[in-house]
Amino acid sequence: MLGIETSCDETAAAVVARDASGRGAILSNVVRSQLDEHAAFGGVVPELAARAHVTFLDHIVAQACREAGVTLAQIDAVAATAGPGLVGGVLVGLTTAKAIAAATEKPLIAVNHLEAHALTARLNDGVAFPYLMLLVSGGHSQFVLVRGVGDYERWGTTIDDALGEAFDKTAKLLSLGHPGGPAVEAAAAGGDPKRFRFPKPLLKEERLDFSFSGLKTAVRLQAEALAPLSGQDVADIAASFQATVADIVATRAGQALARFARELPVAAPTLVVAGGVAANHSIGAALRQVAQEAGARLVVPPPALCTDNGAMVAWAGAERLALGVTDDLAAVARPRWPLDGPEMKVNSHAA
Ligand code: ATP
Ligand code: MG
Ligand code: FE
Asked: Which of 284, 178, 259, 171 is closest to 219 using CA atoms?
C-alpha cells in the first residue's frame, strides 16, 4: 500500500505491507517537514503549505517507492489522507492519489487522518481491538474507544485548544520557536516544575473532556508579570506548564481506563497514545504510572510514527482494503471529519 499524507505541514509518502495474518511492515516512510516555509510566521500558513505540497509531493512519492524497491505498477492500492485537515493540502494529496489510482488501475482508499493515528499501534505493536486511544496532536485531544476499523466511540474531547496547540502557543509566548512541543520540552528540562501553579480547568468535573485555553492565559499572565524573562524563568514556566498538562492528561487517562474496565469485557485494557504530543517524555512517564496503577498496557508508537507520516496513512488504507473497503475517484476532501461519523463505518462502503 502506498500512503500519502498532506493534511498539515508534512509532505509524506510511504509504502507499507500487510500480511494475511494482519502483521505490518514499513518498507519506506519519507517525510518532508515544512519548518522552513512557515518559520517566519510562527505557525502553519495554509496557502504556503498547499503550495509546498504541490512542489514536493511527486518527489516524495518517487522516493518512497525507490526506497521500498517497488514501482507504482507493483503496489496493490493507494491511500491518501482525505481529511480532516487544511483542505488545500488535503486536495493536493488526495488528487495525486486519485491520479495514481486511475493511471495504474489500482484501488483508492480515502483515509481519515484520525483513523490513521488511531490504527498506527496495530502496524507497529499489533495491538488487538478493542483498545482505548488518547489522541493528543496539533489539532485534537480526545479519548476514543477503538472497537474496530471504522468503529469508534468518542469519550471525551477538548472544549477549546488541542494539547499540541497549547504547547505551540506556550512556546510562542516564551519565544521558543515552532514547533513548540519539542522546544517546550527541551526548555523544561532545565526548569523547576513546582515554581508556578497553573490552573487545571475542568478537572474537577466528572467528564472525560479537556480544556487548555485557560492554562495558556495563565502562562501568558505569568510571563508578563516576570518580564523581562531570564533564561531560568523561561525554563521554570516551561517545566511548570509541562508538569501541569502531564497531570491533567494522566488524571483523565486514569478515569478513562476506569470506564474502559467497567464497560468492556477485556482482561487487560490497552491504552494507546497517538499524535505528536505522545513524543513528550513527561507526559509519557505520567501515563505509564497511571496505566500501571490501572493494570493496563500502555502503547506509545515511536515518535516518527506519532507525528504525521505516510506509513500511518498507508496502514489505515491496508486495514480497510483487507476488509474489502475502497473508495471511488469521487471521494471528497473534508476539512472536518469526526471519527465517529456515519461514513466511517466499514459497512457504509460498497465492498
Ligand atoms: P492533527 O493530527 O490533529 O490534525 P497535527 O497532524 O498537526 O494535528 P501531529 O503532527 O500529530 O499534529 O503533532 C504535532 C503536534 O505535536 C504539535 O503541536 C507539536 O508541538 C506537538 N509535539 C511534537 N513533539 C512534542 C513534544 N516532544 N512534546 C509536546 N508536544 C509535542
Ligand atoms: Mg505537523
Ligand atoms: Fe496528525
From this structure: 171
CATH number, domain of 53, equals 3.30.420.40
Q: What angle do CA 251, 256, 260 make, to 5 degrees?
A: 150
- pTM for this one? 0.94
Containing structural domain, residue 75: 2-119+305-350
CB of 179 sitting under 6 A from ligand 1: yes
β-strand pairing of 2-5 with 10-18: antiparallel
> Does 293 lie in the same domain as 251?
yes
Interface predicted TM-score (ipTM): 0.97
- Any atom of ligand 1 within 6 Å of the Cβ of 138: yes
Tens digits of per-residue pLDDT, 183-236? 999 999 999 999 999 999 999 999 999 999 999 999 999 999 999 999 999 999
Q: Is 254 annotated as a binding residue?
A: no
Q: Do 203 and 327 belong to one domain? A: no
CA of 38 to the centre of ligand 2 (A): 11
